[in-house]
Design brief:
mainly alpha, ABC transporter involved in vitamin B12 uptake, BtuC, two-stranded antiparallel ribbon, 3% strand, Branched-chain amino acid ABC transporter permease, transmembrane, ABC_transp_permease, transport
Length: 287
């Protein structure tokens, strides 16, 4: 029973981390129609930059948590304005090829700059201990991940459902041309959404580094998991991404615990079932 409870807490923290990673790619795909295959690279770049700030420079974890997401967001901004914007009229294939090429460029840069060894970041001192919960000792950092994920999920839901910008985003999901015809600067919306999606990737990179670490090829594994969550949850939906992230987090965590040799198959089987039963995802429009 104690082992199952610990795995449940691991699954929750992992699910909230997946939510932070995937929400950005979901919004970008839903609004811009761009499947950013470099999104996993932005996450890993956030982890590596955070590692350099914390472990190499000796600066506090909280400093990296504040600075790194904006650094990654600015890099995302440059990618959107200089590279992606000229491709909007060329079709989705050019964007997929472009971002896939960027992912491989980032992959080589990671190896050149940070090497090919597995790296990890220590949790902040204040969270580097365990907390007793229901008679079990739970790492405080994983509890912090759950709390941070809850706060961000609520903020994102409120922004999308209750604010003017959220209304523009929801309208853009249905009809970009109509939104532009109403006088909204759709290119500005695209840029801000990409900026925010990249910021979430950087935030997830710093928060995830003490749990998942960093290693060569991690960006492609993160990308695949993000696409699974994207398909299961549905396009552009914060609620769908939240539910799907927790679901995938639980499925992968418990499958790795009970049948580790079949964990990947089980995760993809979940995606296949959702595609057959509800192609638009649990909470989303039809793909």
């Amino acid at each position: 029973m104690s082992t199952l409870f610990l795995q449940m807490m691991n699954a929750l923290s992992y699910g909230f981390l997946l939510f932070l990673i995937t929400c950005g790619i979901s919004l970008v795909f839903g609004i811009l129609g761009v499947l950013n295959l470099a999104h996993g690279s932005l996450y890993v770049l956030g982890s590596y930059v955070g590692f350099s700030i914390i472990m190499k420079s000796g600066l506090p974890f909280w400093f990296a948590l504040l600075v790194v997401p904006f650094v990654i967001a600015i890099i995302g901004l440059i990618i959107e304005i200089i590279l992606l914007r000229p491709t909007y009229k060329l079709g989705h294939l050019s964007q997929v090829l472009l971002t896939f090429g960027l992912a491989y460029i980032f992959h080589d840069l990671f190896s050149i700059i940070w090497g090919k060894n597995i790296l990890a970041v220590s949790p902040p001192e204040i969270l580097n201990h365990s907390v007793e919960m229901m008679g079990y000792m739970i790492p405080a950092y994983r509890l912090a991940l759950i709390a941070i994920g809850c706060v961000i999920a609520i903020l994102l839901w409120y922004t999308q459902e209750k604010t003017k910008w959220g209304a523009v985003i929801r309208a853009g999901l249905s009809d970009k041309e109509m939104v532009g015809g109403l006088g909204v600067n759709i290119h500005l919306v695209f840029t801000l959404v990409f900026f925010f999606g990249s910021l979430l990737a950087g935030l997830g990179g710093v928060l995830g580094s003490p749990v998942l670490g960093m290693y060569p090829g991690m960006e492609f594994q993160i990308l695949i998991l993000s696409l699974v969550v994207l398909v299961v949850g549905g396009l552009g939906s914060v609620t769908g991404t939240f539910v799907a992230s927790l679901l995938v987090g639980f499925v992968e965590t418990f499958s790795r615990f009970f049948v580790p040799e079949l964990s990947l198959i089980i995760t993809f089987a979940l995606m296949a079932v959702v595609l057959v039963v509800r192609p638009q995802g649990l909470v989303g429009r039809r793909i």
